[in-house]
Amino acid sequence: MVGVARSYRPVLRDQGFLLPPDMREWLPDDHLVWLVLEIVEQLDRSALHARRSNTGPGRAAYDPDMLLALLIYAYCQGVRSSRQIQQRCVTDVAFRVVCAQDVPDHTTIARFRAEHQDVFAQLFTQVLQVAAMAGLARFGTVAIDGTKIPANASVDANRHRDWLAREVQALVNDAAQVDAAEDAQDRDDNNNGAGGQRMPAGLRDRSGRAERLRTALAEISAREDAANQADQQRQANAEARLERSQAGKSVVGRIPRGPHRLAEAQAHLAREIARQQAKLERRAAIIAAGRRPMGAPPLPVEQHSHVLRAQRAVDAALAEQTAPPREPAPARASSHKAHRKGEAVVNVSDPQSRLMPTRRGFLQGYNAQLAVTADQIIVAVQLGQSTNDQAAFVPMMHAAQHIADHLHQHTELPQHVIGTVLADAGYASDANLAAPGPDRLIALNKARDQARNARAAPTPQPSPAGATPRELMRHRLSTDEGAQLYKRRGATVEPGIGNLKKILDRFSRRGLAAATSELHLAAIAFNLRKIHRAAHC
Question: Are strands 141-150 and 158-160 parallel, antiparallel or unpaired?
Fold first, then answer.
């Protein structure tokens, strides 16, 4: 038997209003919303006010400062839907404080976010200045990494050129039929004295489907042109490799497939045979001169591992050249998902998004790049369409350098001078290693292999003279100083990516520019949460 309590607190749902009459007493002084409102007041918001017309008849417009603070605070809470923001303004005390209980409609919120998307990048830089004045953003080490973020589009919405062309033509035909029917109706109306009352075409097509399909078709044409240019560049690079190889110069990397593969493999084999033969002849000359050669005798040419490997490359190129061409698998015309291998596809919901490979499969989205300082302040963001990270390193490094110089001019603090840039093996390339800019450590293989090599065979300073940028980087990562410094990369940027995805795990808006503005907005919210946490530690 459950015991009966002597008394409970009364549950008086018909009780009159008991909240303090002053909103400033509704929340504690250290609540995040007060920091957001305070920092928004410090920002330069002239660009927002310049675009808001508050003259003429009708109801007065919402204050852009309030809408900006509402958006930033909503992103701090991981709320990105304009409908959810409107609902929170009714049910959440902090949201009600931001909007002062004058709840904006979700269309007003969405329109404000869309109309001012190019302003968020400037506001992101201003918030970084606030963080710098608060003693944050330590640039001693800056880690760069990328993450794939889903777009507001489905993987199943990808289509190939033939499908897009058929749909666009069908829409054009339908539009022609509708126009003909409406023209006939207009003539009948005019004959009857009613006058033409046809609705404008822009108002009839509310979905914008035709425009999206045309954009998708233009996007796929641009991608095919880029692919053709890349093929031409690869062909030119293969010809340059062949010339170097036939001239007896060493060539780094695997021999690319194509019409020059066999010729380069044969030139490589001839070079390895000549190299080993020269060793044998030098030893024979030393013996003929009556001297005793040093070291073990060289292996015969046909037994040396380099010659054997080069011979296998020749055999593989010959097999590829003599193999019968494969017949392409027939594509099912009835299914839009049955894309032929290598065929370009584009998403009809967000044509600028891309299929991105991840550890859990493919997603439809963008490649977001982040530069994070040692105290986990995001100082630069970039959104791209490439699945590869290499091309993003130099722009991100220069963006971090620019921000560091900008902050140092305002604070003159030594912590706002960029030190070492850290990046994983996904950014390793000769161009990134040799590009001008700040000091950097870029892994050349997986982190666990790199750490194991540094422990097993540590390399003393200094680095060898005349080494290539890749050799210099490998040597530095093998030193105690380099290995310990590189260890900071994962603990710097990966928690930042994880926490950013708590704010922005999927884009709400479509298009590269719109998604980029949303990424800036999420980075603003991320840094404000860091400032708030640092102020109350």
Answer: unpaired
Provide the token pair at 131: 């963080």
Residue 380 neighbours by CB distance under 10 Å = 25
pLDDT score at 279:
87
pLDDT digits (tens, 9 = 90+) for 454-512: 666 666 666 667 778 888 888 888 888 888 899 999 899 999 999 999 999 999 999 99
Does residue 146 sit in helix, strand or coil? strand
CB 450 within 8 A of CB 444: yes
**How many Å apart are CA 529 and CA 537, to the nearest integer?**
12
Q: Is the pTM of this model over 0.90?
A: no
Tokens of 340: 């032929």
According to the 3-state scheme, what is the secondary structure of 264-297? HHHHHHHHHHHHHHHHHHHHHHHHHCCCCCCCCC
Q: Are strands 141-150 and 361-373 parallel, antiparallel or unpaired?
A: antiparallel
Q: Please give the backbone phi and psi of residue 423, each rounded to the nearest 5 degrees, phi first.
A: -150, 150
Which residues 6+ apart lie within 8 Å of 419 measured at CB?
A: 139, 140, 141, 142, 438, 439
**Largest separation between any pair of C-alpha atoms in the chain:** 120
How does pLDDT run across 81-109, given as a tens digit for each residue?
Answer: 999 999 999 999 999 989 988 899 999 99
The three-class DSSP label of residue 153 is coil
3-state secondary structure of 372: strand
Q: What is the DSSP string of 175-240?
A: HHHHHHHHHHHHHHHHHHT----PPPHHHH--S-HHHHHHHHHHHHHHHHHHHHHHHHHHHHHHHH
